[in-house]
Design a protein that fits this description.
mainly alpha, 149 residues, 2 domains
Amino acid sequence: MQLLQYSLLTFVVAFMIQYWVLSIVTSARPQNTVGKFYLSVVAASIMGFLEVMIYDTYKSVVSLTYYLCFGFLIYVFLYMYKKQIGIDDADYLKQMLESHSCEMEMSQTAVDKTANNQVKMVANNVVMRRKRDMDVIEKMLDDERWRKG
């Protein structure tokens, strides 16, 4: 296989793992969001960059064009994420919904597995707060969908 094929395959697989697999594993409520897309491109670009480094080490070459391309993708998508370019209120709420779902999953696991009453109390409080927050976020998203028709 050529370097282009290696790096594209690595990029696509890393993107899918970051965008879908990690969300499904860590959250009961995975969401499609622009912010998650940006971060997935960054993670996939880093993996692509590393694939080029491995290939170059093995072949004793320097593939400057690939480094520049992946470096550019990392820079641009980090910048877009940090500046929240193209991310609207609904996207922000969806990101929060997925994040809160992750917190609820982790806290519920703590409640189920710990024997420490203080940890149970903190985890139960997190579950209750996040459930309440998620209900509010869902209502806001429903209202937004209704307004847009």
